[in-house]
Design goal:
The protein is mainly beta and about 500 residues long. The protein contains six helices and 30 strands. The structure holds CU-O-CU linkage and copper (II) ion (CU) (2 copies). The site of one copper (II) ion has 4 residues, from strand 6.
């Protein structure tokens, strides 16, 4: 039997009953897994995509997919100025791709849907790393199947580092510099992943009732009693997190998707949409244990009308102990007073590299819609609702939607009226010029490759790598069910 079927058919049958959440106890509080570090450089770095068995629960195995491990992949590190020779082997029995999300690599190295890796095959891109230090990620991007492939585990963190440009921030991997890949999942009675891309799940995007960080359910991280850098990646299909600490403590954001901010920005809460990253520095020097919480994700279209169906499409994690309504736990931090922090104080300014993109030479408009131009119920019933579109057109691998000129700055106006959509552009890092007519605050004024658009946003986009019509770049909604349903377009750069 095909392994793909093991994962997906299991899901389809088990998505319906959703038997009581108390049927088996989720194992939380395990130590935070730290993915192994895979440093590219020197020879070839191999990622092997394969079927695996994970143990999210005691005594139950969960079929999953991963890169060189059962679920998710190692943290890839690439050095600025070096060439990363990658080899992605596909030992699964379906096509995958390997997209370097946030990377500035030419179209034929980008790993988009056109660069399918057949079962048994390998892909060997040579990536010339030439962009500021940043927290990126990699994931499969197969046409129409990105949602289930990422859900099953085909994702990992990617860090760009620049040893010649010290930033003064905590930076010892796994000690005071932690990768945190936050995802939500739903499990079946037998411990398998539950997922079916239909009806409300497709419309709203999938939301699960268990929170995983680096592939463990609500884990606990032992940290030094000092400053710790957390590299947060929302690797969820659709859930938007509204993060804060249980004791309301403040923290500083130091980087967004594309790299450092000019100075740390103090805050007591942070919204992280799918595929967004934020690096924050948290002070644990008081030695007090603390829980990272999230507020509820309310990003649903027509919640009244669809209300009756939402139970299945939009599961809710249980309320955290002592938390207000709707607030759930992501993970815990247990500072160790015997381990002082390595970095005594937060620098006042950071070596940010935010370019001046100048005046845009042209304007483009991107209207995101879930109505498919045919009315929501077009296409026959809940299972086959109208396609999702950008400017009235659903994604087509054979059509180039936009042709850009190398190095020219454009103003992209993005419109999302039905619900908020995290809009992502490949091949570059953009700047957000405005959201709903207002300039953005400091934390959003750095380089980004995903912007949550709720209404209207203006992005300044300049691309400095080439992509031809055979391997174009993508722009799309990063709610993966929306992307797979057609809310995606392609662009060339010449
Ligand atoms: Cu994170 Cu088109 O991708
Ligand atoms: Cu991308
Ligand atoms: Cu969307």
């Amino acid at each position: 039997m095909h392994r793909r079927q093991v994962l997906t058919t299991g899901l389809a049958t088990l998505a319906l009953p959703m038997l009581g959440r108390g049927a088996f106890a989720a194992v939380s509080g395990r130590p935070l897994p730290i993915p192994p570090l895979a440093e590219a450089g020197g020879g070839v770095t191999t990622l092997t995509a394969a079927f695996g068995q994970s143990a999210f629960f005691d005594g139950r195995a969960t079929p999953s997919w991963g890169y060189s491990q059962p679920f998710l992949g190692p943290t890839l590190r690439m050095k600025r100025g070096a060439t990363a020779r990658m080899r992605v082997e596909n030992r699964l029995d379906f096509e995958i791709t390997s997209h370097w999300h946030g990377g500035q690599f030419p179209g034929h190295m980008d790993g988009g849907p056109q660069l399918a890796i057949a079962p048994g095959a390998a892909w060997e891109p040579e990536l010339e790393v030439d962009q500021p230090p940043a927290t990126l990620w990699y994931h499969s991007h197969s046409h129409g199947f990105t949602a289930e492939q990422v859900y099953g585990g085909l994702a990992g963190m990617l860090q760009i580092v620049d040893p010649d440009r010290p930033d003064g921030l905590p930076g010892t991997y796994g000690e005071d510099d932690l990768p945190l890949v936050i995802q939500d999942r739903t499990f079946t009675e037998s411990g398998g992943f539950s997922y079916a891309k239909q009806g409300p799940t497709r419309m709203h995007g999938f939301r699960g009732d268990q929170i995983l960080v680096n592939g463990a359910i609500r884990p606990e991280a032992g940290v030094p009693a000092g400053l710790v850098r957390l590299r947060l990646l929302n690797g969820s299909n659709a859930r938007i997190y509204h993060l804060r600490f249980s004791d309301g403590r403040r923290f500083h954001q130091v980087a967004s998707e594309g790299g450092l901010l000019p100075a740390p920005v103090v805050m007591d809460g942070l919204t992280l949409a799918p595929a967004e990253r934020a690096e924050i520095v948290v002070d644990f020097s008081d030695g007090a244990p603390v829980v990272l919480w999230s507020g509820a994700d309310t990003n649903d279209p027509m919640s009244g009308m669809m209300g009756g169906l939402m139970g299945r499409g939009s599961a809710k994690p249980p309320r955290a102990v002592g938390a207000p309504r709707g607030v759930f736990e992501i993970m815990r931090f247990a500072p160790d007073p015997a381990r002082p922090g390595k970095v005594a104080s937060l620098p006042g300014i950071l070596p940010a590299e935010i370019p001046d993109l100048g005046e845009p030479v042209r304007r483009r408009r991107f209207e995101l819609s879930m109505m498919g131009g045919r009315g929501m119920m077009g296409g026959g019933g809940m299972g086959g609702m109208g396609a999702m579109t950008i400017n009235g057109r659903s994604h087509d691998m054979a059509r180039v939607d936009v042709q850009m000129r190398l190095g020219e700055t454009e103003l992209w106006e993005v419109i999302a009226d039905e619900m908020a959509h995290p809009f992502h552009v490949h091949g570059t890092q953009f700047l957000v010029a405005s959201r709903n007519g207002k300039p953005v605050d400091q934390a959003l004024s750095g380089l980004k490759d995903v912007a949550l658009v709720d209404g209207h946003a203006e992005l300044l986009v300049q691309v400095n790598r080439k992509a031809d019509a055979r391997t174009p770049y993508m722009f799309h909604c990063h709610i993966l069910e929306h992307e797979d349903s057609g809310m995606m377009g392609q662009f060339t750069v010449a």
